[in-house]
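Quarterly update from the structural biology core.
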Amino acid sequence: MGDRDSLSPPIVQPVLPVDDIGAGVGFYEHLGFDVDRFDSNYSIVGHSGHELFHLQVNLDLDRDSNPTSMYLRVSDEDRWHERWKGAGVSVGEIANRDWGMREFSLTDPAGNTLRVGTNL
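Predicted structure, tokenized:
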């Protein structure tokens, strides 16, 4: 177990499937993220100089049954919610949840669910 302590902590960056890289890039840019296209099948999404997650083309993706989701933990969830709502993005109701989070969710064009929130 001691050897584990000498390793650097991992950084997790999920790879979200998209069936249309242009639609995915456009959606996340509209949300205010920085998006770098690596190639025609892969992009990297970041914010304020930090790499957050990736988008990768999957032409077999079924948007209606896409189970992929991720959580964006922020300290100002109300501001994120208002900004995206004001930009015309369909976002869920922001609320305090029984599991100790204040959060909301939205779905991207590929059917990926993003939950955004903070600990209460």
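The domain at 13-119 is CATH 3.10.180.10 (2,3-Dihydroxybiphenyl 1,2-Dioxygenase; domain 1).
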